[in-house]
Amino acid sequence: MLDFAHGLMLSSVVATPEDDHESPALENLLACGLVERASGGLRVTPSGHEAHSRSAPTRKEMWMTRVLALSVAVLAVTTIAGWFA
Fold first, then answer.
1. Residue 10: which of 43, 38, 40, 39 has the closest Cα?
2. Is 56 helix (H, G, I), strand (E, B) or coil?
3. What is residue 18's three-state secondary structure?
C-alpha cells in the first residue's frame, strides 16, 4: 500500500513518464522497483501499475469522504449558529 506522497508521485509518472520528477518519493519508487529509468524518461514497471491500481480510492471510500465532509460542515454551521442564538 502506498502512502499519499508516493501514490501521487506514481500517478504523476503514469500520466507523464517523459518528465523529470526528481523527488525523494521518486527515489523510493525507483529503489522498490515500481519505476525504472528508461531512455527519454521513466517507465512504470508491471508491479508499479499494480500498485497504482490498488492505491486508487474505492467507490465506497470516495462516498465516505463526501459524507464525512458534509457532516463536518453541518456541525460547523450548527455550532456557529448556536453562538449567535
1. 43
2. coil
3. coil
Determine the Cα–Cα distance for residues 43 and 16; give it in Å rounded to an integer: 10
Q: What is the pLDDT of residues 22-81, one digit of tens each?
A: 889 889 999 999 999 888 788 999 999 998 888 777 788 889 999 999 999 999 999 999
Cα 31 to chain centroid, rounded: 19
Amino acid (1-letter code) at residue 73: A
Grid cell, residue 34, equals 515500481
Secondary structure (3-state) at 16: coil
**Rounded distance between C-alpha atoms, residue 13 and residue 75, angstroms:** 39
pLDDT for the residue 7: 85
